[in-house]
Design brief:
globular, about 350 residues, Neuraminidase, F-box_dom, mainly beta, four-stranded antiparallel sheet, SCF_F-box_component
């Protein structure tokens, strides 16, 4: 029943307490308790500090109407730049990636693992580039998985490159290894808030002309099956708008917006998961001055990043904007709804 910080201190009491609290079974019981009681829900923020050239993780309490000061919780991250994405969370774990390096991290206990790079034998002359990364948990096998969608290409005579194919690779935490799966998927787009874990599926924004245009490409974490969900007919890439996929009212929300001096957001909900015809426009909000992009729906507010890298929240009921004293490099801010856990990525022999 104790919070993580208290349990970490309890590890120092005696050997028997240390042994108990570091057991995977104890971490699972603690996680199940938090889930059942819906406790310890906070906002986990990531931003890149331009001056010190490092990423900082910060926690914001569940009452965002309180103090606007957000104290940083510094966590040593082996690789940090302003393009670092934060995927998840899943049982207290998040995936940090700039699409070159991939890191799994539990910020509650400051535990992390740098994933080994895929080492597949591609045909001679072909090179690999990451298009999208996903992360999730398979409850049937108790396995954490990272999904990498990669583009295979070859250099051409003009000094550019020629597209060859799209490859799908999966990392299993239990074996610390990668494997390929034989499947045909479209190219996906990498930009902030385009990748989303929801309903035991991971999602990417895809533009597949053979399928009929823009879609959400979903991957079922357990069955390892892909499917495409068509976006509303108002989406016609390129249309000058940016897209963001968030969770609102336990549904996937699509936000269409064009960052400018006064930004408006058209907000659509997929009211029935997986059913393209269920996309319904809920409302339009704005204008909001110098807002760069949305990052998270939290209760009755929309958290956003301003053009100067500052965190702000917009109350959807009162239509009031609140500024927080947290700044980062432009377009570096990420936020997820987070619940702490004791889940560790160390294997049994590492713990012993």
């Amino acid at each position: 029943m104790l919070p993580v910080n208290s349990l970490l201190r309890c590890k120092s009491v005696c050997k028997s307490w240390y042994t108990l609290i570091t057991k995977p079974s104890f971490a699972t019981a603690h996680l199940n308790c938090n889930t059942a009681l819906k406790r310890n829900h906070r906002i986990l923020l990531k931003c890149f500090l331009q001056g010190s050239k490092r990423s900082v993780l910060s926690f914001l309490s569940d009452e965002i109407s309180g103090d606007d000061h957000v104290p940083p919780t510094e966590i040593t991250i082996p690789h940090s730049n302003e393009f670092l994405q934060m995927l998840g969370p899943c049982n207290g774990l998040v995936c940090l990636t700039d699409h070159d390096d991939i890191i799994l991290c539990n910020p509650s206990i400051k535990d992390f693992r740098v994933l080994p790079p895929p080492s597949f034998n591609y045909p001679q002359g072909l090179f690999s580039s990451t298009l999208g990364v996903g992360f999730g948990f398979d409850p049937h096998s108790s396995e954490y998985k990272v999904i990498r969608i990669a583009e295979l290409y070859e250099d051409d005579e003009s000094g550019g490159y020629k597209f060859h194919s799209v490859n799908v690779e999966i990392y299993n935490l239990s074996t610390n290894s990668w494997r390929e799966i034989d499947v045909v998927v479209p190219c996906v787009w990498f930009f902030p808030c385009s990748e989303l874990l929801f309903n035991e599926h991971f999602h990417w924004w895809a533009n597949d002309e053979d399928y009929g245009g823009e879609s959400l490409l979903s991957f079922h974490i357990s069955n390892e099956v892909f499917q495409q969900i068509r976006l509303p007919n108002v989406c016609a890439f390129p249309d000058g708008n940016e897209r963001a996929f968030l969770v609102l009212n336990e549904s996937i929300a699509l936000l269409l917006f064009n960052p400018s001096e006064q930004t408006y957001f058209d907000i659509w909900l997929m009211t029935e998961y997986g059913i393209a015809e269920s996309w319904t426009k809920q409302f339009t909000t704005g204008p909001l001055v110098q807002v760069e992009r949305p990052v998270l729906f939290w209760k009755h507010a929309l958290l956003m990043e301003k053009a100067n890298g500052q965190l702000v929240s917009y109350d959807l009921r009162s239509q009031r904007l609140k500024e927080f004293q947290l700044y980062g490099a432009q377009k570096s801010l990420r936020a997820v709804a987070y619940s702490e856990s004791l889940v560790s990525m160390k294997r049994e022999r590492d713990i012993k």
